[in-house]
Amino acid sequence: MPEGRSHGYVLLSVVCWGGAQYLTDALLSVFSPALMIMLRFLLSGLVLCLLYGKSGNFHMVVFLKRYLPAGGLGAFGYYLLAAYALRITSLPFVSIMGGILPLLALLLDITVLRKKAQLTDWLKALLSVAGVLLLSCGAGFSWNITGGVLMIAANLTWLFYGILIKSWNEQGKNKQKKNGQELDRQENNRQEDNKHEWNKQEENVEKKNTQKENAELGYEFLAASFLTFFFFQDFRVCGRIAMWEIILLLLLVAVGTILPYRFYREGSKGMSLQTASIYLNLLPVITLLPSLITGRMQLKGLQFPGIIFLILAGLLGKAGKGGRSTGK
């Protein structure tokens, strides 16, 4: 995939997730955190499995070894922690805590993945942290220690999910490389008049791979929803469910869950974990943008450079080694 398209997919995922935070905040007035997480990922998983389930490779052993850990980290773990943090803090606080993600990703790159960090990598990470601190000045973001710990834990679970998916992508690339070498050998034996048939075969392979990835994502979502049943005592409906809440839930499933996960997984194949996290650094800006436009929130003093730092860190996503694919 072209590098520009990879970055575009990740940016699209950030935009979707930014809007999803508003949907989540609205639905928490009706559903308890655990119940909302269960409904969100159960419905998302069912939709993907109904559409693409036959394309996936489902066995109980594979489910327990692959989809359960992925769903536990990237869906259940992150969103459950974030939902409880949202209950005791505020939407602006939860959104801006995404700004610590690049620094955590850089530290994991150095300690876990054993990668060398360049000066630009530290600059991007420190700009993100500075943006978080400045943006929170005088904003009434409901800072508290418990909420901060929950969001740090949530960001860490997301990063470990990224490491897991990255390792699977590398395995897939190696497998595709072997298949590609075999296809090249077959291509050399074909005549020019069979080229159209050959291109059609390649398109079919790519289509099947996409359908398989959608099915696997559906299995991950189902695994995440099953894990929420350990918190069944927190399954509560806090008020009357109106048609508006049902529409919001369906939007959360389609636009706030299925689409951004597909965009992020597709785009992050061509970049490092640290670079992908830099783009997620724009999540606070996108989440707060509607409030700024409508006048519900106004920036003051040091908050202006805070916004600038977060945007600048995002724009520096391609700079340095952190912006290169791990395969290069």
Automatic annotation (TrEMBL):
Annotated PANTHER family: INNER MEMBRANE PROTEIN YTFF, OS03G0707200 PROTEIN-RELATED
Residue stretches of biased makeup (Basic and acidic residues): 179-209
Stored Pfam families: EamA
Organism: Anaerocolumna jejuensis DSM 15929
Lineage: Bacteria, Bacillati, Bacillota, Clostridia, Lachnospirales
Origin superkingdom: Bacteria
Annotated segments matching region Disordered: 175-209
Protein name as it appears in the record: EamA-like transporter family protein
Residues that span the membrane, as ranges: 30-52, 64-86, 92-113, 125-143, 149-168, 217-235, 241-264, 276-295, 301-319
Subcellular localization: Cell membrane
EamA domain mapped to chain residues: 9-136
Classification via InterPro entries: Diverse_Substrate_Transporter, EamA_dom, EmrE-like
Topological relation to the membrane, as annotated: Multi-pass membrane protein
Annotated GO CC locations: plasma membrane
Presence of keyword Membrane: yes
Family per similarity comment: Belongs to the EamA transporter family.
Keywords for the protein's UniProt record, in alphabetical order: Cell membrane, Membrane, Transmembrane, Transmembrane helix
